[in-house]
Amino acid sequence: MSNPLINATIQAALLSATSNILAQILTAYRTDKNDAALPSANGDEKQEKTEKLNVRNTLIKVFLDQSLGAAVNTVAFIATMGSLRGQSRVEVFEAVARDFWPVTKAGLKVWPLVSALNFTVVPLHNRIVVASLVGVGWGVYLSLVAAST
Hints:
This protein is mostly helical. It has helices at residues 4-30, 55-84, 89-108, 111-120, 127-148. The protein is 73% helix and 0% strand.
């Protein structure tokens, strides 16, 4: 019999890797192929263009990420976990109402700093990696929250 923790870890790793690869492919598709942050055919990474930081644009990105993005992802997580547990619609809505603010407050202790640093300090080609690494820790926290309810 296989260990459920090992299975869940492998599934999460595969899903995370798949989502990162798909994000890079979509970025390459949407932009000029020469501007994609993917390794070139000879293995060298493309040189990034250095541009002056647009403070207003960065603040807007962080604000949207921490307000709309956080709210949508938090509700989606809580609702998905409830649905996977076989909870009724009413129970899922109750779980969202009960858990939304505690999870959101915890996220505000981590993600604003990560977002701000990611948009200002981290080179473009490393942003997905940085967010994913922090996301691993965040995923552990969310799993612990989900297991305690």
